[in-house]
Amino acid sequence: MATPARAKRFAAGRARALGLPTRGTTNPNRLRRMDAWIVAVLGPALRRAEHPLVVDLGYGASPVTTVEFAARLRRVAPDVRVLGLEIDAERVIAAQSAADPPSLAFARGGFEFAGTRPLLARAANVLRQYDEPAALTAWRAMQDGLADGGLLVEGTCDEIGRLAGWILLDARGPRSLTMACRLATLGHPSELAERLPKALIHHNVPGSPIHALLRDLDTAWDAAAPLSAFGRRQRWQVSCAALAADWPVTLTRTRFGELTVAWESVAPR
């Protein structure tokens, strides 16, 4: 239970924290695909920085995914500092037992990053509950709060992390879309549509770029069906390679069930 002084402090900060409380549902390893991509793709930038600050926004009812995130980041940037932020004061108080100062801390905050300027921010399963205009406003607030050269990873995944999608942004705007899946349970790539980030999920209709991308990926997946005898990973990699003939696809991490495309190719028109 919070002490009166602590409760008063959290209440005083409520007006300054931007955003709504998340639904709070989470599971251990739910964000492992997003974390693996961040470590591999963005880890070198964290390693070059001195004591880089990373914000994990909206970790939910349990801090487990923030704790996992911090541990994974420390493998590539041992001096990284991770700050988990939640608007719900009781969640912040409950998370304090998992804190490991100075490398891992928890505080009350929202899209304003509690006044900090992180080099990297992760907002996973936060904007899914917002309508699209409000989500884009939240994007701008988070972009404005980044450190110089800072990056934002915003996206969503299913409850146990089998399907996921996220967007990489810098201060100027979105840079790329990544979709990731557990290949062993994938029927068709278009199943990823249900976990598109908020900026895209309502645009997955005929005639839109994201709809065309998923359609073409399904077509490539079907054409690669004979390769199933060699495993789903081989089938996925060949499907992505075929897609790259017409789309700006990054193929370096397709072996992990990922597909990254330039944002301009899927941006809503």
Task: Write the SSE topology.
Elements: H1 4-13, H2 32-48, E1 53-57, H3 64-74, E2 81-86, H4 89-95, E3 104-108, E4 120-124, H5 132-145, E5 151-157, E6 163-170, E7 173-181, H6 198-201, H7 209-223, H8 232-243, E8 249-250, E9 258-262
Parallel strand pairs: 1-2, 1-4, 2-3, 4-5
Antiparallel strand pairs: 5-6, 6-7, 7-9, 8-9
Helix pairs in contact: 2-3, 7-8
Task: Give a quick summary of the entry.
With 269 residues, this protein is α/β, with parallel strands linked by helices. It has 8 helices and 9 strands.
Question: What key attributes describe this structure?
Answer:
2 domains; 9 strands; nine-stranded mixed beta sheet; disordered N terminus; Rossmann fold; alpha/beta; 8 helices
Structure description:
The chain is an alpha/beta fold. It has helices at 4-13, 32-48, 64-74, 89-95, 132-145, 198-201, 209-223, 232-243; strands at residues 53-57, 81-86, 104-108, 120-124, 151-157, 163-170, 173-181, 249-250, 258-262. The protein has a nine-stranded mixed β-sheet with strand order 3-2-1-4-5-6-7-9-8, with helices on both faces.
